[in-house]
Amino acid sequence: MTATIKKLLTAMVGSLRDLLPIVLVILFFQFFVLQQPLPDIGQLLLGVVFVVLGLTFFIHGLEQGLFPIGESMATAFARKGSVLWLIAFAFALGFGTTVAEPALIAVAAEAAQVAANGEMIEATRAARERYANGLRYTVALSVGLAIVVGVVRILKGWPVQWLIIGGYLLVVIMTFFAPQEIIGIAYDSGGVTTSTITVPLVTALGVGLASSIRGRNPMIDGFGLIAFASLTPMIFVMAYGMLIG
Fold first, then answer.
1. 101 close to 195: Cβ distance less than 8 angstroms
2. How far is Cα 89 from Cα 83, in angstroms, rounded to an integer?
3. pLDDT at 66
């Protein structure tokens, strides 16, 4: 119990240290540039406390739960020797974590609202939900397939840089043909997918798998899955825009 409390306090100090630059930037611009007092200081302080607590428990949860379970499952699949089940797990993990990603849900809802305001879709709740869900599931499918490609890369020992270079060349080419309205959303989709839920589990999967396979270096082969998860949504969302456009 004492060790757990000590870890929490250490994580809390780290959260405060990470949050300090943001607080200093806000205070500087508020007092020296805008030259205005802080509105509702009590509420702001309470919000900072909640942010620190949230970051602390989130980091502690990653260390205690998500990272260990991701690595242990990757190790178990590697020892089981079933490539089919490993690929199925990789796809399900990428798809499931992306569908549940809060940042993606928010961006998809905002994109649907903007599309309705711009008369690209009907200004009804059902139309907005269809558009938002279409984006979410398109991105989730792309991330699931990206994690599968990343897992196969680890199994085969392929260099990650050539796959990434090829993928971004495809993104550049598709940009010239995709509808203008979807390009920005596609680029943003690549960023929001790799957030609080997806990153820790996918990273743990890659490192755990590379650590379990003889001849693989976790530093070289274990990382790179997040790059695939950021790349493929741009391709798939632009393709989605071409299809519905």
1. yes
2. 10
3. 67
Amino acid at 197: I
Structure tokens at 121: 């879709």
The per-residue pLDDT for range 12-55, each reduced to its tens digit, is 777 788 778 888 888 888 788 777 777 777 787 888 888 888 87
Residue 190 pLDDT: 80
Question: In terms of C-beta distances under 8 Å and separation of at least 24 residues, what long-range contacts does 64-73 make, across chains too?
Answer: 66/200, 66/201, 66/204, 67/200, 67/203, 67/204, 68/204, 69/204, 70/200, 70/201, 70/202, 70/203, 70/204, 70/205, 70/208, 71/204, 71/205, 71/207, 71/208, 71/211, 72/208, 73/205, 73/208
Question: pTM for this one?
Answer: 0.76
Amino acid at site 104: L
Q: In this structure, what DSSP letter does residue 172 have?
A: H
